Give the backbone structure.
Amino acid sequence: MTSSPKEAIAERLGVVRQRTLELLESLDDEQLNRVYSPLLSPLAWDLGHIANFEELWLVQAVGGREPLRGELGRFYDAIENPRKTRGELPILRDPELRTYLADVRERTLQVLEEVEIGDGAENRLLREGFVYEMLFAHELQHNETMLQLLQMVDGYEPVRPEFAPGFAPSPEEPESIAVEGGKHEVGAPRRGFAYDNERPRHTVDIPPFEIDRTPVTNGAYIRFMEDTGAEPPMYWEPDGEGGWLQTARGRRDPVDPGHPVVHVSWHEADAFARWADKRLPSEAEWEVARPRLDGIGQVWEWTSSDFRAYPGFEAFPYREYSEVFFGDAYKVLRGGAWATHPSVARSTFRNWDLPQRRQIFSGFRCARDLP
Ligand code: AVJ
Ligand code: FE
C-alpha cells in the first residue's frame, strides 16, 4: 500500500508517540514527578517538553496558531530551566498533562493538512519536511533522556526489549584497524535530515591512525581500576567477593566482562586510554573509520574533540539547539547507545556532554597515531 507524504508523516507521529507512552506505561504519577537526580528532569517534565516542542514548531511556527496554554511554555524551555530546577516548576501533571499532549497533537494534524511540504516549499522549515523530521528526532532523543532517568527507578520493567540494555560480547584485547592519512570528507550532505551542527560537509586532513574495532569492555576496565585505583563506573557496586554488580533499575546483575563499559566520564575514558598507551579518537577519525567499525550502537563513544562549529556553520532553525553549546566546555560523543533509536544514530550525528558526566550511556574505544 502506498501513502502520501502527509499520511506517512501522520503515521510516524503516531508511531513515535506510542513509543514514548510505552516507555512510561508502567509508572505511576509519583514516579513521573519524582526528582531522582539533579542531573535529570522528572519524567513528567520530559513528556510536557515533548508536547511543548511540538506545539512551538508544528503548531505555532508552522501553523501560525497562538499557544494553547499561554505562558506554560516557559516552564518547558530547556535553556531557561536548568535540569536541577525542573522539579520545582508548576508543570502539568496527569490527567492535564495527557490532555495537553492530545490537544497539541490534534492541532498538529490540522496544520499538517494545510501546509505545503517539499522542495518548493516557501517556508524553509517545511523543505524536505525538515520540521517534522526534527520533531521525530527530538522526541526520540528525549526517549533516551527518559531512559537515563529510568535507570534510577527501582524495579522498572521495560515493556519493549529495546528499552532494556542490549550488548554483544567484545574481546578484552581489541583488534585495531589502520586508516590511511590524507583528506577525508566529514559532516552531513546538503540534502536529507541532519541537525545544523552536522553541516556543512567539509574536508579534513588526518594523519594516519589506528582505531580499535570494538569498544573498551568491562573486563579491560576492571584491570584499569585494579591497576590505578580508578573509581568504578556509575551503577557498579562490589559483590563482596572481589567482583562487581550492575545496579541500574535496582537490579543486582553480575557485571559481564565481555560487554562494553558504560556510564564512564570523559575524564575516566581519557585516563584509561593513556593507561593503555593509546588515546581517544577525534570525532573526525571516528567518522572516517566508521564504515569499518564493529560494535557501534551499544554505547555512546567519547571522543577527544570539543563540541565546536564546523567551518561555515549556520544555525538552523534555532541557536539553542547547538550554537550556544559550542566551545571547549563540552566533549563530543559519537555512535549511539542501545537506548538510542537507530534513526537518531546517523554516522554524522554529534552528541555532546560535559566531560564529568556519567548518567548518559557513555563508553569509548581507543585509537593511536600511526607513523
Ligand atoms: C544532543 C543530547 C545534547 O539533551 O541537550 C533535546 C538533545 N536538544 N532537546 C540535549 C536535545 C533539545 C541534546 N543532546
Ligand atoms: Fe528538548
User: Anything to note?
Assistant: DSSP finds eight helices and twelve strands in the chain. The first strand starts at residue 176 and ends at 179.
